[in-house]
Amino acid sequence: MSDPRALSVLQRVFGYESFRGDQQDIVQHVIDGGDALVLMPTGGGKSLCYQVPALVREGTGVVVSPLIALMQDQVDALTELGVRAAFLNSTQEWRVAREVEQAFLAGELDLLYVAPERLMTDRCLELLERGRVALFAIDEAHCVSQWGHDFRPEYLALSMLHERWPDVPRIALTATATAATRDEIAQRLALDTARHFVASFDRPNIRYRIVEKNEVRRQLLDLIRTEHAGDSGVVYCLSRARVEETAEFLCNNGINALPYHAGLGAQVRAGNQSRFLREDGIVMVATIAFGMGIDKPDVRFVAHIDLPKSVEGYYQETGRAGRDGLPASAWLAYGLQDVVQQRRMIDESPGDEAYRRRLGQQLDAMLGLCETVECRRVRLLAYFGQTITACGNCDVCLDPPQAWDGTVAAQKVLSAVYRLQQRGQRYGAGHIIDILRGKSTERTRQHDHESLTVFGIGADLSDQAWRGVLRQLLAQGLLMVDHEGYGTLALTQDSRAVLKGERQLMLRRESEKKERSRGTQRTRAEAVDLPPEAKPLFDALRAWRGEVAKNHGVPAYVIFHDATLREIATAKPETLEDLGHISGVGARKLDAYGEDILRHVAQG
Ligand code: ADP
Ligand code: ZN
C-alpha cells in the first residue's frame, strides 16, 4: 500500500509532481521499516529516497556521509526547502555541535548528517540512543568496498548500526556497483534481508566519446572552445603535477580553470570547490579526489586526459556530467603511453599477486571499452550487468570506426621486438616505431639497428598509425610492458600465434570523418527547449536568482535549477497557484519567492 503522506511530502516540500522510477517503491519500503540497498546512477534521484521517508517517519533521519566538506551545502539546500536539517562533524565548534545535539534530542530535526568517524564515537552513539532515529541512510555506500576506488575504512564499522538499532530501517545508496561490489556492500553492512533496488544505469543525455590522444592539451582546449565555451566542467588527470600544469595551461588560454588535488591545503581545496559550485562556467582540473557528492546539476562536460584505472571509477566520474538531464559530454583521450604507464604502475604497485591481478583485470576492462567497435554505452552498461541496444549518442554510434586487418602490421611489430630480444635488447615504443619506419637516428646507428631485417619494413604507415597498432597490441596482451621497468616492450605467450600467422588480427581505426567533424555536433544545453521569446525573461530570472543566492550564501541552483527557471520563462504563470505547479517550486519557495517571480513575469 502506498502511503499518501509520501506523495504529499514530495509535492509540498520538494515541489515535484510525481516519483521517478523506483523512488516510490523505495520510499514506501523504508517508511514501512524495511532495509534497502539502492543502486542508481548519479543524478537518478537517490536523495529523495531517504529524505521523504525521514519526513514521513517519526524522529530524525540520520544520514551517514563521508563528505564533510559538502554537509553545509546539503543542509543549506534543505533549509531553503523548509526542512529542519543539521550536521555534526569535526569542522564545527563544540558550541554549535551542542546546539545540534539539543535540537536532535528535542525532536526538532528532520535530517541529521554525520560523518562515519563521528558517528562511531561513544558520545554520538549515546546521543542517538537518547533521541529518536527515523532511519539510517548510508550514502556513498560503495566506500565500504575494499576493492573499490573510494574505500573508507571508517565505513567498515557501520555494520554495528544493525545490532544496536535492530528496529530502525537502514537504506544504503550508491551510484556505482558491479554485481561483485553490490554483494560486498550488502555483506559488509550486514544488509542480509535488505531489498535491492537496482535502477537502470543508463544516462542517455551524456554523449560518450573516446578519442586517440596526440596533443592532449590542445585537444582539450579545442573541445572546450568549440563545444563548451563558458560551461562548467571537470577535467580529470592522474597526477597532481598534471593537474597543476593543465590548469595553468587552460588559464593561460583564457579558460576559467581551477586545480584540485589532495596535495593542496584543505583551505585552498575548499575554496576552489566552493567557487566551482557557486560561480558559473568554472572548469575544475582535478585528480579523482574531487567530485564525490558534488551535486551541481549543470556540469556540462567531464573530460579525462589520462586513462582511468577502472570502468567503475570512470562511469562514476563521467556520471557527474548533466545531472539536470540536459545534454552533456563525457570525453576521454587515450593513447599508447597511457597503456604503458598503467601496466607499469600495476607491476610496481605494492600488494600481493591477487591484488595486482585484480588491478590488471580492471585495466583490461577499461582498455576493452576504449578499443571497442561496439556502442560505448552497450559496453558500459554490460559492465554493470545491464543490456541495452545501440544508443545513438556515443562516438561509435555517431561515427563508426573502421576495422582493418592488422595481422601483417602486428607481425612486423612483433618481429622487430623479437629480433631485438634475440640480441638481448629491449626498447620502448618510440624506438621500435623508428626502426619499423626506417628512421635513421643516433640510436639506430649506434646500436647497429639499421642492419636488422625489420629496419624500414613499416614505411607504409605513419607514426600515428604505428602507435595505434602498438597500443592495441598492448591492450590485447599481445605485447607487454617489461617488468624491469622503463616502459620497454616484450613479447607475451600469445604473441607467437600472431607471429606464426595462426591468428588473424582485426584492429580499430578512427574514422577520419570524426576528426574533421569535431565540434560540429554541439552538445551545449543552453538553447535546448528555450524558445527565443522566453530568453529575456529566463535571463532576468537567472540574474535575480544570482542575487538571492549571493545574499543567502548558497549556490544558485539551490534557489532554483535552470530547468525550473526555464519552465517559468516559457509557461509565464500569472498566479501563485500556477507557479506552484511548476516542477521544483515547493511550498516554502513559493512562499519566499513567489511574489518576486510573478513580478518578473509581469514585467516580461
Ligand atoms: P543522485 O543523488 O542520485 O545523484 P539527486 O538526488 O541529486 O540524485 O537528484 C538528481 C536531480 O533530480 C536533482 O536535481 C533532484 O532534485 C531531481 N529529482 C529527483 N527526483 C525527482 C522527481 N521525482 N521529480 C523531479 N525531479 C527529481
Ligand atoms: Zn552508442
From TrEMBL:
Gene Ontology biological process: DNA recombination; DNA repair; DNA replication; SOS response
A molecular function (GO) term: hydrolase activity
Every HRDC domain range: 531-604
Zinc recorded as keyword: yes
GO cellular component labels: bacterial nucleoid; cytoplasm; replisome
PROSITE patterns with a match to the protein in the record: HELICASE_ATP_BIND_1, HELICASE_CTER, HRDC
Keyword Acetylation: no
The protein's Enzyme Commission number: 5.6.2.4
Needed co-factor(s): Mg(2+); Zn(2+)
Residue ranges occupied by any Helicase ATP-binding domain in the UniProt entry: 27-195
Record-annotated Helicase C-terminal domain positions: 216-371
Recorded catalytic activity of this chain's protein: Couples ATP hydrolysis with the unwinding of duplex DNA by translocating in the 3'-5' direction
Keywords from the named record: ATP-binding, DNA damage, DNA recombination, DNA repair, DNA-binding, Helicase, Hydrolase, Isomerase, Metal-binding, Nucleotide-binding, Zinc
Organism domain of life: Bacteria
Family per similarity comment: Belongs to the helicase family. RecQ subfamily.
Protein name in the entry: DNA helicase RecQ
Organism: Bordetella ansorpii
